[in-house]
Every structure is written in structure tokens, then in C-alpha cells.
Specification:
Layout (H helix, E strand, L loop, with lengths): L4 H8 L4 E8 L4 E8 L3 H9 L19 E3 H4 L2 H5 L2 H7 L6 E10 L2 E9 L8 H23 L1
């Protein structure tokens, strides 16, 4: 079930990428737990080489579990385009728009479910935000059960 979940969610949200990731604001280190649509070399880069610069600049955006954001809520487009993260990780995969939800928080570490799509596919709309807000508690509960197993 877990191996197919990212693709199922990506299809629901019309995204090229779905990823369950963790980020530690103290160490500035990120890792991807589950994903679909990410090139294999980029999976390794995410954990080992990527500079997240402004992608995770403001910790307040990720303070409360259940919070849903589209990319521009966190970082205006002009600032995103100037980041190393965009230039080295997103752009080579033709990824631009982001929809994400904070699933959990422990100290300065956060668990995030993100959906990404190319610029040509358009931004995530209000309905996508509302749909993610509705399913978030159920996803969070399922992931908590998985973690305990």
C-alpha cells in the first residue's frame, strides 16, 4: 500500500511529484521518506547535496500541523527563481508549483507532504487546498500508524 500511495495522491492532485519529507531547521537537513515522480539522482541529492536556502527560510510557515500552503504563500516567485534549490533541484526536473501540508512537528523538525508540478500545468487552486485540508487528518493518522508498525 505505501509504495503506491504517493502516485495515488499525485494523481488525485494532478501533480507530477508527491513526496513525504522531513526537514530539520536546526541542521538544515532534509530527507524524503516516500515519493513518486522524482528522478533517482535527485532523490539522493535532496538528502546529501541540496541547499534549501529560502525554500525553508521561515520556520513559522511550518509551525502548525495541518497547515496547507501553496508555493507563493511561502516564497514569492521572483525569490524562488533566484534560489539554489530551484536552480539545482526543481528546475532540472521541470518542477515549479507546490502544494504542501505540515503533517507533524517535533522540536525543530517537521514532516511535510508536498505536491509539485511544472509551470505549464498551472498553480494549485483553492479547491486543491481545501481537498488537502480535508484529507490531512486521515493521512496523518495513517502515517502515525505506519510509524508504529
Amino acid at each position: 500500500m505505501w509504495s503506491t500511495l504517493p502516485q495515488t495522491l499525485a494523481d488525485i492532485f494532478n501533480a507530477r511529484v508527491c513526496m513525504l519529507s522531513n526537514f530539520d531547521f536546526e541542521t538544515q537537513h532534509g530527507s524524503i521518506e516516500l515519493s513518486c515522480g522524482i528522478e533517482p539522482t535527485k532523490l539522493e541529492e535532496y538528502s546529501n547535496q541540496v541547499r534549501f536556502d529560502r525554500w525553508f527560510h521561515d520556520e513559522r510557515h511550518y509551525a502548525r500541523p495541518g497547515t496547507v500552503h501553496v508555493g507563493e504563500d511561502i516564497l514569492p516567485v521572483q525569490l524562488l527563481l533566484a534560489t539554489d534549490f530551484y536552480q539545482s533541484w526543481l528546475k532540472p526536473q521541470n518542477l515549479f508549483h507546490r502544494l504542501c501540508v505540515v503533517l507533524g512537528r517535533s522540536g525543530r523538525s517537521v514532516r511535510i507532504l508536498s505536491f509539485l508540478r511544472p509551470a505549464g500545468d498551472g498553480a494549485f487552486d483553492r479547491k486543491a487546498v481545501q481537498d488537502l485540508e480535508q484529507i490531512c487528518p486521515h493521512l496523518n493518522q495513517a502515517i502515525e500508524v505506519r510509524d508504529r508498525l
